[in-house]
Amino acid sequence: MEQLYHIIIWILSGIIIIFSLIPLIRNDYWTFRVFEFPRLQKWVLNLLILVSYVSVIGLNSGVDYAVSGLLVLNFFYLSYQIYPFLPLSPKQIQSTSKDQQADLSILISNVYQYNRDFHKLEKLVDKEDADLIIMLETDKWWKDKSVESFGHRYSYQVLEDQENTYGMLIFSKLELTETKVRHIIKKEIPSVITNVRLKNNKTFRLYALHPEPPVPGENLYSTARDAEILRVGQEVAKEEMPVIVAGDLNDVAWSYSTTLFLKISGLLDPRRGRGFFSTFHAKHPLFRWPLDHVFCSGHFRVASMKTCKPVGSDHFPVLIKLYLSAIEDDSEELDVDEEDVETAQEKIEAAL
After folding, report:
1. pLDDT of 330
2. pLDDT score, position 4
3. pLDDT tens digits, residue range 19-31?
């Protein structure tokens, strides 16, 4: 029986170490990219296996010391990976000061196209009364319901409903100008770019995205998703005005491609130093990670950020309140080098 325990622990140890290292392989095939998602879960499993190894099996041979040593190294490696998203790490975007009141609130909700619990979203919209609502996976049914329910409270609207799970609706109390619906990589997947004027006449540029995920049945490769995000990153890097990129990016906050996007664009992640704020999967607590994002230029300060109650979708909505400062703080931008620039361009060219 003791030998069986040994074999089981060895197998589990090998699996968790392999799962941790697979994302280091820079391949766009979905089986490589999917292992980037459960970072916290891998950390917990690695810890459980390590504790079980030491307490149940013990360290009785050179092999035991070697395997447990690898688990310890993997534990510290995974700890290093999740540390930037813990509240005890430095904030990448500073919080508002006492004299800075939020002048913008954004509610993002991937509603899941086939979800028909509209009343739950309606209740959330009424409660939070956000200045800007970005709804994803919206078909005509969702558009009609939304316009009828709360459309009258939002003077500016972008209604790009579709039946392929890539519809996008934007409702805004703030003035939208120079609004464009674009199809950056694929003609069936829209994104929106618009200028948003705050009540104090400050203006920022909003990019709303929902790229295609690398999953069987849709696209086996992450190339198109990565290229759309990185193409926007290149555009943002040239912007002179404050910028927000928001939406369901179908990518986790810590992935290689998202990190590359932050480097290329110069944007900041409000999650860093505050928490994971996992938005998917709303119905499976053990399989959750952050897919819905709000990335900001250094002009913004964070008043608050939270995930909201479920609305019947497989995603939790996320609400963020921001203050737009006249002073840009780019001290926490990630460093970008020539290799990063070349890698981003190669991914874009591969998709196009």
Report:
1. 86
2. 77
3. 999 999 988 998 8
Given 3.30.70.660, 3.65.10.10, 3.60.10.10, 3.60.40.10, which CATH number is that of 104-351? 3.60.10.10
Cβ–Cβ under 8 Å, residues 181 and 158? yes
- The runs of H, that is alpha helices, within 26-139 are 30-33, 39-52, 62-82, 118-128
Task: Tell me the whole-structure pTM to 2 decimals.
Answer: 0.94
Spatial contact of 251 and 229, defined as CB atoms under 8 Å apart: yes
Per-residue pLDDT, averaged over 89-93, amounts to 95
Of 41, 66, 68, whose CA–CA distance to 54 is shortest? 68
The CB density around residue 98, as the number of other CB atoms within 10 Å, is 5
CA torsion angle for 273, 274, 275, 277 (degrees, to 10)?
-130
Please, which residues have CB within 8 angstroms of residue 300's CB and are 6 or more apart in sequence?
93, 242, 244, 268, 322, 323, 324, 325
Spans of all domains in the chain: 2-85, 104-351
**Encoded tokens for 174:** 């703030």
Whole-number Å distance between alpha carbons of 82 and 87: 11
Residue bearing tokens 């609502």: 133
pLDDT in tens, 124-182: 999 999 999 999 999 999 999 999 999 999 999 999 999 999 999 999 999 999 999 99
Residue type, 233: G
> Rounded to whole angstroms, what are the CA distances from 150 to 50, 143, 147, 350?
52, 11, 6, 42
Q: What is the reported pLDDT for 1?
A: 62
Provide mean pLDDT across the span 278-307: 96
Q: What's the mean pLDDT in 257-267?
A: 96
Residue 244 backbone dihedrals phi, psi, to 5 degrees: -130, 130
- Given phi > 0 = left and psi -120 to 50 = alpha, else beta, which region is 165? left
What pLDDT was estimated at residue 2? 65
- What order do you get walking across the sheet with 300-307 strand by strand? 156-160, 168-172, 132-136, 104-110, 318-324, 300-307
Q: How many other CB atoms are found less than 10 A from the CB of residue 126?
A: 11
pLDDT exceeds 90 at position 219: no
Q: What angle do CA 221, 251, 262 make, to 5 degrees?
A: 110
